[in-house]
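Lab notebook page, bench 4
Experiment: in silico fold of construct C2
Operator: M.H.
Input chain length: 203 residues
Purpose: comparison with the prior construct
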Amino acid sequence: MKKKKSPASGLLASDRDWHNNACLNYMSDHGTAYTEGYRRAADILIRHIDETARDQDFLVYPVVFLYRHHIELQIKQVTGLARRLLREHDSRGGDKVTHNLNSLWEVARKLLLQADDTLGHSHFRRVSDVVRALNEADLRATGFRYARTAEGGRSLEGIQYINTRRFGEQMAAASDDLDAIDNGLRYLLDLENEMLGHENGLY
């Protein structure tokens, strides 16, 4: 009987050059690693284009897709934190199954205003701007992944140029705003847990 190969020798395995071994599942909240990973990958590609003046016509697709997915994950993350603060459960799971950024952001904004009374519409402006632009260009989140639409036409018809530096700056600003909202919600959750601990005599 043929011996099965050890997982250590497979495709998804570590090796002796330790600096190339990526660690997975070591964070308590490993969703942050996903969210941050997509942004960092996009930033690295944008920097490569800016510093070398090369590959922009090829790298623009992963750049936009990576940043778009990053923003989608951030929106879903703050939505989940707001729901925890409000002790609300989304029985439909609507914000998990759709890639429509407008729909996700509409739900998130309403919950955020309820969960954190320090937030106002002015805190959402830059995120709303990039969400609107991305949704108009790529409603199904497939345009920067596939060259053809489901109907067989060309993807991204009508878009001729994208300045990757400018795109990255605007996406980073929106991402920073979502990060600030995320940190604020986590702070409120920590305060709430501390209060519950005092009430229950844990402190």
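Observations: The first helix runs from residue 31 to 52. The mean pLDDT is 91.
Next step: discuss at group meeting.
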